[in-house]
Design goal:
The protein is an alpha/beta fold. The protein is built from ten helices and eleven strands. A five-stranded parallel beta sheet has the order 3-2-1-4-5, with helices on both faces. A four-stranded antiparallel beta sheet has the order 7-8-9-10, with helices on one face. The chain binds pantoate (PAF).
Length: about 290
């Protein structure tokens, strides 16, 4: 990583990924390429953030395609560190963002957020970017990283970027290729969130009502949580507005998916941020 960093000059942007790139990743790379002199992206499937070994084993990969896509999006340096380079010794140092990382995903995937925070810390220390780009689809991850950067004093701007959806509304995720015949059922989660966003646009502010709109759309037993949270702390909000995000997670067959809508209201007005919708099927299906 030190060698890669030495080759980058000017304002350096970083896009950390676990590969099997989709249009969400590419939008981060394109934004970094627009805003920075040089863009580095990383491809590292981080074992520390998988609480389930089966999930790690089936995580999709296509390195050649990733390299070509990243280059086409303006990435100057693709860094693909091996496990040895990331952690020459099994780490004894862990980064836990208390509270923010312990709720929601932290409850359902023990150790996951600490795994994310530890590896992102390692990447920021090794690559020393000026700006680092993350998708708002992982709203809790973004809150955790924003806070760890503040707490540890990394001189980097964390840039949150819009969630990207497939044509039918499913939030983009590399894992979507694993949904198989459960894909149609999985649409229930984004449908529920869109209904909640519509209710918010119509003036509804009650967390209980908005969360119920999501839960009611999802088949019995599939839902892990639907919760309205303050964006920076991920504590539960009882009323939507200010900076809130309605986050949800559910399981469909072998895949657990997370999704959200940002519900923001201030003296300028209120807006539900549903993300960006692709106009054609995601490129991940081209690799099947
Ligand atoms: O969002 C991801 O793909 C991962 O959590 C990240 C940030 C690359 C860390 O492994």
């Amino acid at each position: 990583m030190a060698e890669a960093r030495a080759r980058a000059a000017g304002v350096v942007g970083l896009v950390p990924t676990m590969g099997f790139l989709h249009e969400g990743h590419l939008s981060l790379m394109e934004r970094s390429a627009t805003e920075c002199d040089q863009t580095m992206a990383t491809l590292y499937v981080n074992p520390l953030q998988f609480d389930d070994p089966a999930d790690l084993a089936r995580y999709p990969a296509d390195h050649d395609r990733d390299l070509a896509l990243a280059e086409a999006c303006g990435v100057d340096l693709m860094v693909v560190p091996g496990a040895e380079e990331m952690f020459p010794n099994p780490p004894l140092t862990w980064v836990t963002v208390e509270g923010i990382g312990e709720r929601l995903e932290g409850e359902y995937r023990p150790g996951h957020m600490t795994g994310v925070a530890t590896v992102v810390t390692r990447l920021l220390a090794g690559l020393q970017p000026h700006r680092a780009y993350f998708g708002r689809k992982d709203a809790q991850q973004l809150a955790v990283i924003t806070r760890l950067v503040q707490d540890l004093g990394f001189p980097v701007d964390v840039v949150g970027c819009p969630l990207v959806r497939e044509v039918d509304g499913l939030a983009l995720s590399s894992r979507n290729v694993l949904l198989g015949e459960c894909r149609a059922e999985a649409l229930a989660l984004s449908r529920g969130l869109m209904r909640a966003a519509d209710r918010f646009d119509q003036g509804e502010r009650s967390a209980t009502v908005l969360e119920a709109a999501v839960r009611d759309a999802v088949p019995d037993g599939a839902m892990d949580y639907a919760r309205l949270c303050e964006v920076s702390t991920m504590t539960r909000a009882t009323v939507a507005g200010g900076e809130t995000v309605l986050v949800a997670a559910a399981r469909f067959g072998p895949v657990r998916i997370i999704d959200n809508v940002f519900l923001v209201a201030d003296h300028h007005g209120a807006s539900a941020d549903r993300g960006i919708r692709l106009g054609r099927p995601s490129l991940i299906y081209g690799s099947e």
